[in-house]
Amino acid sequence: MGIPNAAVSAATMKAMVLTGHGGLDKLIYQDVTVPQPGPEEVLIKVAACGVNNTDINTRTGWYSPHVKTALTSDIGVNGVPADAEELGTWDRDSLKFPRIQGADAVGVIVAVGRDVDRRRIGERVMVDPCIRNPSLPSLSQGVMYFGSECDGGYAEYTKVVSENAMTVNTNLSDIELASFACSYSTGEEMLVRINLQAGETVLVTGASGGVGSANVQLAKRRGARVIAVAGQSKEALVRDLGADEFIPRERQDLARAIEELVGRRGIDAVADVTGGPTFSQMLRALRRAGRYVSAGAIAGPCPEIDLRDLIYKDLQMWGVGNPQKSTFASLVGYIERGEIRPLVAKTYPLAALRDAHTEFVSKAHVGKIVITI
Question: The domain 183-319: what is its CATH number?
Fold first, then answer.
């Protein structure tokens, strides 16, 4: 049981509850019991929580290996076709319902478990959403994801393992702080895996979205040259984030567009969150021994690959789903030192989460959509 605190005065709370895979109707705004922190957990009064692709992917059932298409706006609103089977989470394990989603919770600790220092009560924290088993090898420690395999931040209160409630010393608002955790830790982990260096050239796809816009800032922080890909209408905002070059997503000949910018030698790295039909062109544009890293496939999870590019150019390829603890610690430092800035596109109240999901899948925004609690 948690240590009581006067700030927790109610036995129930408002939450947006996911009742099963499917469309927006599976999100139900209702009263649920306030969670009690376990021995090593803290209870957080949530102030804001960012919206992420993982929310949509999980709700709709898009993570199922039986789904071969891009995450379209229709799927985002209505869910995957009813005949799809094995609708699991990101690791293809069964997802238990009901579930409270929301990976990017920010708030104040109001109660602690038996084995947690009581002095943590009152701390303003952001949640590291990757819950780890430290006994496993470093790249396989992520055993649960906050808001997926356990309840998350789309509620008035949430609980999490104490070490995942990270104190951040910043003057940023709760809304601004809620734009970072999931997207920026994923983005930073992508750049850690490919060991992006100052002076190198990296292609960033989906540069107007959460992870993509994070990658633009994080790559520039490392001193890299950034070629960003996003919808033509978003060029000015993406360049404002620091992109050196811009290629409209609408252009079909991506490899040729990259060659026009860097010549036949090719680019050093690709940080990709889209996949889809341009995947093979990304590999073609990489120099010999170039590096490719993916953390998303919303434009299509089953692209064609020419293994000759992989083999005869000695390419390196990485997949990122669970950032390491050290990566999140680095992210906290960047925030505290003001080395990256939040990019909040729009906010919605918790009761309007369905509207936020509809806006999110339209892909008309740049940056993050944040839910206020």
Answer: 3.40.50.720
Q: Using CA atoms in the order 97, 34, 158, 26, what is the torsion angle rounded to 10 degrees?
A: 30
∠ at Cα 340 (338, 343), nearest 5°?
A: 120
Nearest in space to 319 (alpha carbons), one of 259, 272, 355: 272
Instruction: Tell me: pLDDT of 2 over 60.
Output: no
Element (H, E) at 31: strand 27-33
Domain map (residue ranges) of the chain? 12-179+342-372, 183-319
Cβ within 8 Å of residue 174, ≥6 positions away: 47, 48, 106, 107
Is the CB of residue 253 less than 8 Å from the CB of residue 277? no
Return d(Cα 157, Cα 286) in angstroms, integer.
46
Q: What is the pTM of this model?
A: 0.94
Report helix, strand and coil shares of the chain as percent, to nearest 5.
30, 30, 40
Mean pLDDT across 264-278: 96
Contacts 24+ apart (CB under 8 A), 352-356: 353/16, 353/27, 353/29, 353/154, 354/24, 354/27, 356/51
